[in-house]
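Repro:
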Amino acid sequence: MRWGDFGRSDNVEDRTGEDPGAGSGGGFPLGGGMRLGGGALVVIVVASLLFGVNPLEMIGMLEGGGAPPAVPSAGPQPGYGPQRTPGPPPPRAANAPQDPAKDFVSAVLRDTENVWETVFKTMGAHYEAPRLVLFHRATHSACGGAKSSAGPHYCAPDRTVYLDTGFFEDLSRRFGAPGDFAQAYVIAHEVGHHVQNITGTMRKVDQQMQRTDARGRNALSVRLELQADCYAGIWGYFAQKRNKLEPGDLEEGFKAAAAVGDDSIQKRAQGYVVPESFTHGSAEQRLRWFKTGLESGDIRRCNTFGGG
């Protein structure tokens, strides 16, 4: 991918030099104060590392209890919380990242900004770009503590994507999805959640989640994730149209999309598939909706709430 041709975003805040503090270690905290050890965390990482809807849902699935009870709208929820007006952002380092991984993130984020500014303009609307926080191990967010174990994720209340760039190594080594386009796909997916937030989709889904059972919440979560995949495809459509992709890039994205299907995840983690527990969609669904956005470049084609 010719990402060196991209500009660099002003909306990147680098917290990688911060001390994550003592609270960042020891496994992933459960609601009752229990913690999962490192081996079990691999499952959590696989489930939420790429596309960061609340990892507690995956924990509940793996424990056999389904998704956890819906979080009331008053509480922040990573990935599909209610819209809120964010406070003033903390100081951020505009165009600062010099590390190759940080520079890459800044470049891809800037390109998503260009794409969505164009898309929103065609709809007669103004696009307000998200912030992206780079961190190491752990940091704070309006959705609570942001940890590497939760993977890249979007926090709706502060309209911010949280990313530990060490994730890219895991993406390649653990999940068999190497390449810069696969990494860019992840960033574009999280930005897709931001688009859902500012267009009101998340708010509507959150309201529906309060009125349904665990299976219904899972189904809504799947639709939300598939739409973010489609939105990631829209970014890829414009990158391809501007000749910014290189041979093999699309295959990298396809491999990443399929690798994080719930069925693929469950087969790796437990050897069998439980379709009713899906929260992100099957490999076939994720790949199909990513391709829908990639081939059309049309936000109207991304109505996952009306299709399979």
